[in-house]
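One record is set out below.
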Amino acid sequence: MIDLGKAIMIQGTSSGAGKSLISLALCRILSKRGYDVVPFKSQNMSLNSIASIEGGEMSFAQYLQSIACDKKPSWKFNPILLKPEGKRTQIIFKGKILNTVDARDYMFSKKNEIFRESMKILDRLLKEHDIVVIEGAGSPVEINLKDYDIANMRVAKHANAKVIIVTDIERGGSFASIVGTMDLLTKSEKDMVIGFIFNKFRGDKSMLNSGFEYLEKRFRKKVIGVVPYIETKIPQEDSLTTFPKVKGDVHIQIVKLPHISNFTDFAPLHWANGVDYVSNAEELKGDVIIIPGSKKTVDDLLWMRKNGMEDAIKDIHRNGGFIIGICGGYQILGKRIIDFVESNRGEIKGFEILDSKTKFEKNKRTNNLKAKILWRFMKGMEVEGYEIRMGRTITPKPFSIITQINGKIVQEYEGEIGNNAIGTYLHGIFHNLNFTEAFLNIIRTKKGLEPVSMIEWDIKKEIDKFASVVEKNIDVDYILSNI
């Protein structure tokens, strides 16, 4: 028999219970204790993806968990990524597009086949590492889905994982949620559960003791810990994201497109200034308007044209407002898009705020990038980011020069500098705090405001800070003694 590593699986009583962040914290805690740890989630549904080390596509949650493990982010940690596109879903398998299908077709076609391939990847991870921290998805006991579920107990059984169930006590009903979850598990599934974690608690923990006694008596399972509500700048999973509406000193408005993607791009702007997501033309009044990435660029362009947002953005631009487009938003700001791939609508007129012209192609570019800014206000500034796109764009005045693609030295132009407008394919550009600080101060100076200095933010420091609080509030030794 192959001497496999150990598996811990974090499941939840619901979506948004905190599985991703508890998994991330456990990855960091065990890694700092000297274990060779990697994360794994067989299937994730997310609009926030990122380029893996191989140049494939993976979910942002497993990317952050890989950082917590001091590992290079690989699609092996998230072999199946589902990206919703309206009524259909794009299936990313092993980092590359496999197909775009409706939910029923996926349920009854290739799902089991790619699950088996995903379990082979998990087997290799177990063989090569001490511990695999596996994250579940949603609830493991949804009656209508359980027979088809490839992200929870089926994975736990395959990996012989010990399961910890997490519940969000802030929402209320957490004890009932745990009882209901346990009652709907089979006996063999119950036997895999080693305990419970109550997450996002505010208050006096002693008030929960009677509930803990009930759970331990009824199920003979330990309450492993109570994690307090923690303010963190770690980007969250998008399934339950609330889009902020904060008017800062610089009024930054982000268009909440129907098919918005990669909105983790804008978290640093929110921390430093505040951002205001808007969905209609009447709300558009900002100093800066950002059109973000899109899963269906042409559909979202036509949506803005129909609801009056295009005209409102052009008016703001004519009156001195600054316009930014990221990825699909950059394509929308150009003169035209030629699309016989995504929506098959042929040639579509863009907003004509920038001079670029984009043609969609079937092959998707998914790469980690390093670049130098060409914009005169920040000329020569080095930044990092990633691209996930199908368009090829011609522009007369590029925004940056790409110097590395997945570590390989190159020289390739991207993006566009316009009049009070920029477009770029660099997802994550605002996570370069030197860029964000410089950009905000350009707009602040224009408004007669004092410049700001962004507090240095490091994702590893933020992960360490979060993990240290979790470690103080859960019984890690108990977890290790039971795997």
Summary: The chain has 15 helices and 26 strands. The chain has a mean pLDDT of 93.
